[in-house]
């Protein structure tokens, strides 16, 4: 139906009614066209967080390709976007009394903004309200089909919490792009490792225990008594005695009773020996773990197998091997024999992870193996020894500079010793009476002591000669230097011939 502009002057009532009907139909036809963008956007699954969910100053997390509605309490005067390639903003709808378009007209009322993320990235959105006041600002993060984390965090637990918050509400299969940075003092960990083999049989004979120590004695103890027990050991060095005597005459006698002091030399010797033993035990327990290891190693009760120092970046692997490779013949095609190599010795693999400035998580996998020719096999006339292996795999969290001990890798070996009289011990049957067979069981335990530390590289301008031992020495006239040195009138900073500083 077509309507023309016709003057109403002199029109009949019927014509006026027809014209009124045409105007009403035209108004109804225009109304859906105005509201079509909002309905279409809602049909596309747009999220409408509302004004309460998008407070000024907050960070908006948007997904590229999905439109979002943001409600404003006041019509804006101006809208600014930091990067139009990341976000597109349109003034979608205003209540009567508000303007339309990028700049609102006169009047006031509620307004909705249509946010259309275009590409992955970050930008800012600033809206100036018509009623004046401080402009409203939002930080907008637009992610693609994957999650994006870009933050500076103080520790690994904070990083895990940030990842959990980012994945909240996202599909489970959405990939994560992690560009976060954790602020720590250093990204390099130095791990000092000591692999020590203790002879438990010898340690039991002298009363040294590795694991029975308390907090103050670094995990070692000596003897069955604590040093405090020595003070409760007392000896009684006085005694009483009774004697009788005959002093009468004419066959009549009388008895006399007396008292005296008896010295107990045996009890004093035992007390002195116990005091000496417990004094040594107290000194041994109070020494540091390095000193204790030196004492045990000097007395043949411990043997340091390896003392490596490894450096690794956080999250990276580091390994160490002190030993060799054993060639093992294996069958191959056409009856040939191939050679495979098997590693043996002291092997260590570790992975440090820096949690914060003071906490380090460490995964350690030590292994100690040696050749056992008694359990070997013979292949094509070649004897291949077996490999005895002791292995552990553990993880621990500790502070910078703390140590922990991995133990429990026990090995037992039985040996036989034959002592006999020459010639007579070799006689059949009768030789048994002239020889002696002793069996000895030795028990050893492998202990790994690990100490991680956060380290920093030295600056390029550092003078390394002053840090290396023996790098600098000065030879001068010995007569003019040694005399003041021995007399005590020499400055401590003065170099002495033959000494490095």
UniProtKB/TrEMBL annotation:
Domain Pilus formation protein N-terminal positions: 58-142
Signal peptide per UniProt: 1-38
GO biological process, one term: protein secretion
Residue span of region Disordered: 236-263
InterPro entries: Bact_Secretion_Sys_Channel, GspD/PilQ, T2SS-T3SS_pil_N, T2SS/T3SS_dom
Compositionally biased residues, Gly residues: 240-258
Cellular component aspect of the GO annotation: type II protein secretion system complex
Keyword set, alphabetical order: Signal
Family per similarity comment: Belongs to the bacterial secretin family.
Limits of the Type II/III secretion system secretin-like domain: 296-455
Name of the protein described by the UniProt record: Pilus assembly protein N-terminal domain-containing protein
UniProt organism field: Delftia tsuruhatensis
